[in-house]
Specification:
Leucine-rich repeat, LRR (right-handed beta-alpha superhelix); Rhopdopsin 7-helix transmembrane proteins; 3-stranded parallel sheet; 21 strands; binds 2-acetamido-2-deoxy-beta-D-glucopyranose
Length: 658
């Protein structure tokens, strides 16, 4: 009743004083600019026909009725916000406003339905904002038919909005569109979503569930977009076509986007803000690509988005590029395109984050000789250690401490070979375009496995070597006291400790203490946190300590065995030689790790590229030499090997000869 009475009052007022300046109840009016602001209304009042701006705030409307504002011939701005009851927009809610330029609907939590023809015939519209509503389907915009030179569409923070359908912006405006779709609940963008639009900038950031931008999403656009923002989304692939006009591309904190589309897709890129440094490597190459394909790329990029031009990825069966230049005005395509491209070419592609010391723009194995040697070294380590393990494990003789330990040593070195083989295969697979695969590899399970293997094998090898040295020293030092003799169970206990220790060291980076994903060769180079620094120092100390122990033991052994009364016997000389080789190869093995550690902790002492040389040539040196030094070249081992051969019937004669 009250509302009815109110309406009657208004109507009488309108009738009585059509040309008087009146202000509806609960409203404030500014007659100098014909603005009416209303608060907490439950029904739309009758506005003065001259009104140009309507602001409704905190209203409790149930719907916007048909042609609600059509009587206001000069209305240009309509803002509706903070309404808690508005559920829908009827047909022709905003219909036939020849002068309306701005419509904003903000914080309408209940707004769930917009009639397909709610927005219709708004030729002067240049801003439409639908923000923070309960909409679950994309509003139909095709009847707006704006003729403004620029149009800004903001559909933001609608958490229930999941899909952008095909032709979503078709008919919205015939000119340049800037589309802001941030913070919605978008999950996918359908093929031809931007069909028939002239796109300027497209923002899709903060759509944290957005996974799929269809390959054909930008198909059918007349032009653009020149800016594309996919920051903080979950997309994992970009459409490979339709990005030709993009000048600025943003994908910050887009952790799923591990791979960029083929470089050819970004014809005009000038600035990129990405998540991973390695992608910037690809974009630097883009500049070179553009340079070398200048003449090739020019003539037809103009037609990129028309039916004349087809990209081979999309129609693989149609053969190579199929370009149909119009015969009437060929210069049109040539001239403009050439100008644009020359301009684009002069500019350097700026890209952040830039590649850093840990992620240089290079392949896993950057130099040719490394590429070859890593295969040789890994295969040698794998085969030699396999042979050692095979012979020792199949031997019929009683398991001695020495053979037990050497078996472990061979296993550790074998793991190192497997690690190198992994790295070598990745290098082979990603050759000359590692930047494309860098993220997938470094954050994937493969790198974790490789890293774990490398640290485990290296540390187990160092540990076992130290144990072997200690055992030798013990045997000689206590040669005269048999009650102090080492038993197999002592060695087993020692090796159990070793395994646990090395496993722990190798697994720590998987649980967040340092990490294997910083560098392409999957070593724990991450020293951002204090825990990671402690970890690296721990590994370093462990290695240096072990090296110290090995050196000390051999020196002592040498002193004990060396007989000062017989000046430099031949036996002494050869033993000293062997020990020198052992210590030296051991040192070479420890050195790269120390270098790594130090460069990770401090300013890089050597670059990653240089340290890869160390990695391939010295790091696995032990793994290759140890099977020879400790097994293959020793008398006892050769005896075992012959015995095995004879058992399988091959070397019967030789065995009998021996
Ligand atoms: C609308 O604006 C035009 C000029 O801007 C003015 O002449 C006309 O009187 C206005 N109409 C109304 C109903 O206020
Ligand atoms: C793209 O828009 C044009 C023109 O409106 C239309 O004819 C065509 O069917 C649309 N394409 C798709 C795939 O919807």
């Amino acid at each position: 009743m009250l509302y009815l009475a109110r309406i009657i009052v208004f109507v009488t007022m309108v009738n009585a004083a059509l040309h008087l300046e009146y202000c509806p109840l609960h409203c404030e009016c500014d007659w100098t600019i014909w603005r009416v602001s209303c608060f907490e209304l439950e029904l739309l009042p009758v506005f003065h026909p001259c009104t140009t701006e309507v602001w409704l705030e905190g209203t409790r409307l149930s719907s916007i009725p048909p042609e609600a504002f059509s009587k206001l011939v000069n209305i240009s701005h309509i803002y509706i916000s903070e309404d808690t009851t508005l559920r829908g927009l009827d047909r022709h809610s905003f219909y036939n406003h020849p002068r309306t330029s701005h419509i904003e609907l903000r914080s309408l939590k209940k707004l769930a339905y917009i009639h397909p023809e709610a927005f219709k015939d708004l030729p002067h519209l240049q801003y439409l904002g639908i923000l923070n509503t309960g909409l679950s389907s994309f509003p139909v915009l095709k009847y707006i038919l704006s003729v403004q030179a620029e149009f800004l569409l903001e559909i933001v923070d609608n958490t229930l909005l999941e899909v952008i359908p095909a032709n979503a912006f078709n008919g919205l405006s015939e000119n340049d569109l800037t589309i802001v779709l941030n913070g919605n609940g978008l999950k996918r963008i359908q093929p031809f979503a931007f069909n028939e639009s002239r796109l300027e900038e497209v923002y899709l950031n903060r759509n944290v569930d957005l996974e799929i931008v269809d390959t054909l999403a930008f198909s059918g656009v007349i032009h653009g977009p020149t800016l594309l923002d996919l920051s903080e989304t979950r997309v994992s692939t970009l459409p490979s076509m339709g990005l030709g006009a993009v000048e600025k591309f943003q994908a910050k904190n887009t952790w799923g986007l591990k791979k960029l589309p083929p470089l050819a897709a970004f014809l005009h890129l000038q600035r990129a803000e990405l998540t991973f440094p390695s992608h910037c490597c690809g974009l630097t190459k883009l500049k070179r690509w553009r340079g070398s394909h200048q003449t090739f790329a020019n003539p037809y990029h103009h037609y990129l988005n028309t039916d004349h031009f087809r990209l081979p990825e999309l129609w693989p069966n149609e053969g190579p590029f199929y370009v149909d230049l119009p015969t009437e005005q060929p210069e049109e395509g040539f001239d403009y395109a050439l100008c644009n491209d020359l301009h684009a070419h002069e500019k350097v592609v700026t890209c952040v984050p830039e590649p850093d010391a840990f992620n240089p723009c290079e392949d896993v194995m950057s130099q040719g000789f490394l590429r070859v040697s890593v295969w040789a070294v890994s295969l040698l380590a794998i085969l030699a250690n396999l042979l050692v393990m095979l012979v020792l494990l199949t031997s019929h003789r009683r398991l001695s401490i020495t053979r037990f330990l050497i078996c472990h040593l061979a296993f550790a070195d074998f793991c190192m070979g497997v690690y190198l083989l992994l790295i070598a295969s990745v290098d082979l697979y990603t050759r000359s375009q590692y930047y494309q695969h860098a993220i997938a590899w470094q954050t994937g399970a493969g790198c974790k496995l490789a890293g774990t293997l490398s640290i485990f094998s290296c540390e187990l090898s160092v540990y076992t070597l130290t144990t072997i040295t200690l055992q030798r020293w013990h045997t000689i030092y206590f040669a005269m006291s048999p009650e102090r003799k080492l038993r197999l169970r002592h060695a087993m206990a020692a090796m159990l400790c070793g395994w646990l220790l090395c496993l722990m060291l190798a697994l720590l980076p998987l649980v967040g203490v340092s990490s294997y994903q910083r560098v392409s060769i999957c070593l724990p180079m991450d020293v951002e946190t204090a825990a990671a620094q402690v970890y690296v120092v721990l590994v370093l100390t462990f290695n240096i300590l072990a090296f110290g122990v090995v050196c000390a033991c051999y020196l002592h052994i040498y002193c004990m065995v060396h007989n000062p009364r017989h000046q430099s016997s031949r036996h002494d000389a050869s033993m000293a030689q062997r020990m020198a080789v052992l210590i030296f190869s051991n040192f070479l093995c420890v050195a790269p790790i120390s270098f790594y550690g130090l460069s990770a902790l401090h300013r890089p002492l050597i670059t990653i590229s240089d340290s890869k040389v160390l990695l391939v040539l010295f790091f696995p040196l032990n793994s290759c030499t140890q099977p020879f030094l400790y097994a293959l070249l020793t008398r006892a081992f050769q005896w075992d090997a012959l015995a095995m051969l004879s058992r399988i019937g091959l070397g019967r004669q030789q065995a009998q000869l021996c």
